[in-house]
Design brief:
Number of strands: 4
InterPro entries: PepSY-ass_TM
Transmembrane segments: 21-41, 154-176
Strand content: 5-15%
Strand order of the largest sheet: 1-2-3-4
Keywords: Membrane, Transmembrane, Transmembrane helix
Mean pLDDT: 87
Order of helices and strands: HHHEEEEHHH
Low-confidence stretches: none
Region (Disordered): 182-202
Helix content: 40-55%
Pfam family, one: PepSY_TM
Shape: elongated
Length: 202
């Protein structure tokens, strides 16, 4: 099998893998690209995707209220201002020392309550759409609702990571392979062996 024939065979295989991967995982690539784009802009959407971090009165932690007191204020605020039907289960507490504020981020509907760390004043209440986008981006949205302890996210990120790698490698070869084939086609043929000089018989 010649070199050019071998290159053509590899090119056909790569084209098939590239086409199949793109067709089967199109919808997932679409969600990953859109959510990734939005997450990249989350801090530049004027609070639409991610609520702005508010500034409290002091960055001195010794002047802050105890965390349990701040937690009580956040829970009361969520029920009184947003809805008494929301769960008070916390996802995390985000303390911004330099800003003098603390964020209580709840699991239910991605709500957050920002408080002044020193006075307990409510600085803002909002939904973290960025957290929802992150969960869609990495597939953990299904773990969240099916309570599968991260297994779906692990499987999803593994499949998509390997697929994206294949997509990149095959895409590169679909661009580079034909160049190599054209280069091989233009190669000068080897010189023919010199024919012996026969003398005519008398």
């Amino acid at each position: 099998m010649g070199k050019r024939t071998q290159q053509a065979k590899i090119l056909r295989v790569f084209r098939k893998v590239h086409r199949t991967t793109g067709a089967l995982l199109f919808i997932f690539f679409f969600f990953i690209s859109v959510t990734g784009l939005l997450l990249g802009w989350k801090k530049n959407t004027n609070g639409v995707i991610l609520p702005k971090t508010q500034k409290g009165t002091t960055a001195e932690l010794k002047n802050w209220l105890p965390v349990d007191s701040l937690h009580t204020i956040a829970c009361t605020t969520l029920h009184n201002i947003v809805s008494p039907d929301l769960s008070l289960e916390l996802d995390r507490i985000d303390m911004r020392k330099q800003k003098g504020s603390v964020k209580f981020i709840f699991v239910d509907n991605y709500y957050e309550v920002q408080l002044d760390g020193a006075t307990g004043e409510v600085l803002s209440i909002g939904q973290r759409k960025s957290d929802f986008l992150e969960n869609v981006h990495d597939g953990s949205i299904l773990d969240r609702y099916l309570n599968t302890d991260g297994y779906i996210k692990l499987s999803y990120t593994t499949i998509m990571g390997v697929s994206l790698l294949l997509f990149t490698v095959t895409g590169f070869w679909l661009w580079y392979g034909p160049k190599q084939m054209r280069k091989s086609g233009k190669a000068k043929p080897d010189k023919l062996p010199k024919q012996p000089n026969y003398q005519p018989l008398n």
